[in-house]
Design a protein that fits this description.
Length: 537
C-alpha cells in the first residue's frame, strides 16, 4: 500500500494485469491498485501499458467515495517494455557478429588498398629504364606471389563474411518470431480527489486491439457402447506488446468495441436460405486431410491479413463466422500465460460427454471398406461456435472436420473413418451376367453378390448401399430383377439394405438388373474411374 500526498508531483504507478476478457477481436484488460490518498487532489500515472489501447474504451473507478476528476491517455515512446533474457541474449549475439562482420570488411578494404598500391608501383617500375633481366624476374615473382596471396585471403574473408551474414539473418528471424520489435508503452494519467484520508482501490479497465481467439474442438470416440467426448478449446493470441502472465481469462463472443448507443430494432425479414443446398450437403461432417480445410469451409468469407491491423510481419488471418446473437462468456478456471509474440496458445474451455448412436455405412461399388458413423445428440445447449474439429477414434487420429452449427439439426452426424473390422465384398456372379439378342433389341443382365461380415465383438447396424442405372430416354429400359428386399429409390436408382449383424455373423444380398436397348446403339454399362499413371515410352 502506498501513500500519495496532495499537490505532489505526478506519481507513476506500476500494476499487474488482474484479468483479461478476450473477445474474438480485441481484449478488455483489468488492472487494480490499492493505495491511500490524503485529502485533496492527487495525480497518478499508470505506466507500462499496451501501446494498442483503444482510447475511447478507458474506464477508471475508485472505491470508498474517492472521486475521479479526469482521465488522459498517451503513448510514451521513450519507455520501452522490459525484454526477456532470451531476446537480450540474441541481441548481444547480433552485436558480436556485427563486430566480426565489420572486422572482416576492414581486412577486405586493407587488401584492396594494398592491391591498388602494388598496381601503381608495378606501373612505375614498368616505365623505368635500364632494369636488369634478373631484377625484372625478381620483380615479377614478387608481384605474382603477393597478388595471389591477396586474392586468396580476400576470397576466404568473403566466405567468412557470407557465413556471418547468414547467422545474423537467422538470429534476426528468431527475434522477429519472438516479436522483439519497438515495444514501446502507453500511459494513462488520472486525477483523483478525496475529502479525507482514504484507502481506495483504483480499477483501470480498457480495450486493446491485436488480440483474439478462435474455437477448436477435439472429438474422441472409443467404443460403440460408450459416450463420445467433445473437448472445447480456444486458440488465443496476444500481440498487444504486453505479456499476460498467470492471469484469469474469460473468453467472450461479445464485441469489445461495440458502441455505447442503444441499438435499434429493425424489421426481421424472412426469405429462403440461399445456402440451403449446403445444409443438405453437410448433413454429415466429412473429414478433410489438409491444413486449409478450415479456411476453405462453407460459411466463411472475408479473409483478411491481420497485417492490415498494424501487426508487423505476421501471418495470422481473420475470418468471418456466424455466431448466436446472444453473447456467451466462458470463464476459464485455470490461470494462463500468453506472451505477446503473435503465436496461438491453446486454452481449455470445457469438456462434455455426449450420447451417440453408432452405425456403419458401406458402398462397396465405390469403396471396399465400411465407414463408422456417429450420430451425436445433446450438443445444442453447449454454446458451440463454428470451428475446426480434430476427430479421434480410439488411439488413432482420423482427420480434420468442420463444425458448422448453422447447417446442423438436432443430430450431428460425424464420420469416424474406416472400420476394417467390418469386411465388405462385392463380386460379379458370372452365371447370371449375360447378353441376349431379341429382335431389334439386346438385353444386358448384370448380377452381383454383396457380403458383409462383422468381426467386432459386439453387434453392429449397417446401411449397405448400391445402385442400378436410371434410364433417361424411352428407348432404354431398366428392370430390377433381384434386390434381396432392398429399398429402391426410383428417381436415383439407389438401393439400400439395413442390416443388424451379430459378432462373427455374415450376411449376403444379391443385386441383379437388366438393361434393354436397341442393338444398333451403344451404351456404357460398366462405370470406370480415371487415374494418373506414369508413362515410360
Amino acid at each position: 500500500m502506498s501513500s500519495l500526498f496532495a499537490n505532489a508531483q505526478n506519481q507513476e504507478i506500476t500494476t499487474e494485469i488482474n484479468a483479461v476478457k478476450l473477445s474474438m477481436q480485441g481484449a478488455e484488460i483489468v488492472r487494480e491498485k490499492e493505495m491511500t490518498l490524503v485529502p485533496g487532489t492527487t495525480r497518478l500515472t499508470f505506466v507500462g501499458l499496451s501501446p494498442k489501447i483503444n482510447a475511447q474504451s478507458v474506464q477508471v473507478t475508485a472505491t470508498n467515495e474517492v472521486q475521479v476528476l479526469s482521465v488522459v491517455g498517451k503513448i510514451n515512446f521513450l519507455a520501452r517494455q522490459i525484454e526477456s533474457p532470451k531476446i537480450n541474449a540474441l541481441r548481444d549475439s547480433i552485436a558480436l557478429l556485427n563486430l566480426d562482420f565489420q572486422g572482416i570488411n576492414d581486412y577486405i578494404n586493407a587488401f584492396s588498398v594494398e592491391e591498388a598500391m602494388l598496381k601503381e608501383n608495378l606501373k612505375i617500375r614498368g616505365e623505368a629504364n635500364g632494369l636488369q633481366i634478373s631484377e625484372l624476374e625478381k620483380s615479377a615473382d614478387f608481384f605474382r606471389i603477393r597478388f595471389r596471396e591477396i586474392y586468396a585471403e580476400r576470397s576466404k574473408l568473403n566466405l567468412r563474411k557470407a557465413k556471418l551474414q547468414q547467422e545474423i539473418t537467422r538470429i534476426n528471424q528468431q527475434l522477429n518470431e519472438l516479436n522483439a520489435g519497438n515495444r514501446y508503452t502507453s500511459e494513462i494519467e488520472m486525477t483523483l480527489n478525496a475529502k479525507t484520508t482514504k484507502t481506495t482501490i483504483v480499477k483501470l479497465r480498457y480495450v486493446v486491439n491485436d488480440a483474439g481467439w478462435s474455437p477448436i474442438y477435439d472429438l474422441k470416440a472409443t467404443e460403440l457402447d460408450k459416450p463420445i467426448n467433445l473437448k472445447y478449446r480456444a486458440l488465443a493470441y496476444n500481440n498487444t506488446g504486453i505479456d499476460w502472465n498467470d492471469i484469469k481469462i474469460t473468453l467472450s463472443t461479445s464485441d469489445p468495441n461495440a458502441p455505447a448507443m442503444q441499438p435499434i430494432l429493425r424489421p426481421w425479414m424472412l426469405n429462403f436460405d440461399a445456402n440451403e443446398f449446403m445444409a443438405e450437403r453437410n448433413q454429415g461432417l466429412f473429414l478433410q486431410n489438409n491444413s486449409n480445410a478450415w479456411q476453405q469451409s462453407a460459411g466463411r468469407t472475408n479473409t483478411i491479413d491481420i497485417a492490415a491491423a498494424e501487426t508487423e510481419g505476421v501471418n495470422i488471418r481473420f475470418e468471418t463466422i456466424e455466431i448466436s446473437e446472444l453473447d456467451a462468456d466462458f470463464e476459464i478456471a485455470e490461470l494462463y500465460t500468453i506472451p505477446s509474440d503473435r503465436k496461438p496458445y491453446s486454452i481449455d474451455v470445457n469438456s462434455h460427454d455426449l450420447t451417440a448412436d453408432f452405425k456403419h455405412i458401406a458402398i462397396p461399388k465405390l469403396d471396399k471398406d465400411a465407414f463408422l458413423l456417429a450420430q451425436i445428440t445433446g450438443w445444442e445447449s453447449l454454446n458451440l461456435i463454428d470451428g475446426p474439429m480434430n476427430v479421434y477414434y480410439g488411439d488413432s487420429y482420423i482427420g480434420l472436420s468442420n463444425l458448422s452449427t448453422r447447417t446442423l439439426g438436432d443430430t450431428l452426424d460425424l464420420s469416424l473413418g474406416r472400420d476394417r473390422r467390418v469386411l465388405v465384398t462385392r463380386v460379379k456372379l458370372k452365371e447370371f451376367t449375360k447378353k441376349q439378342m431379341i429382335g431389334s433389341y439386346q438385353t444386358a443382365t448384370y448380377s452381383y453378390k454383396i457380403s458383409v461380415k462383422n468381426n467386432r465383438n459386439q453387434a453392429i447396424e449397417i446401411d449397405l448401399e448400391d445402385q442400378i442405372p436410371v434410364s433417361t430416354i424411352k428407348e432404354i429400359e431398366v428392370n430390377a430383377v433381384e434386390i434381396s428386399g432392398a429399398t429402391l429409390y426410383d428417381n436415383t436408382g439407389k438401393t439400400k439394405w439395413k442390416m443388424t449383424l451379430q459378432p462373427g455373423e455374415t450376411k449376403s444380398v444379391v443385386l441383379t438388373f437388366s438393361v434393354k436397348y436397341p442393338k444398333n446403339k451403344q451404351i456404357k454399362l460398366q462405370q470406370t474411374k480415371q487415374m494418373v499413371t506414369p508413362r515410360y515410352f
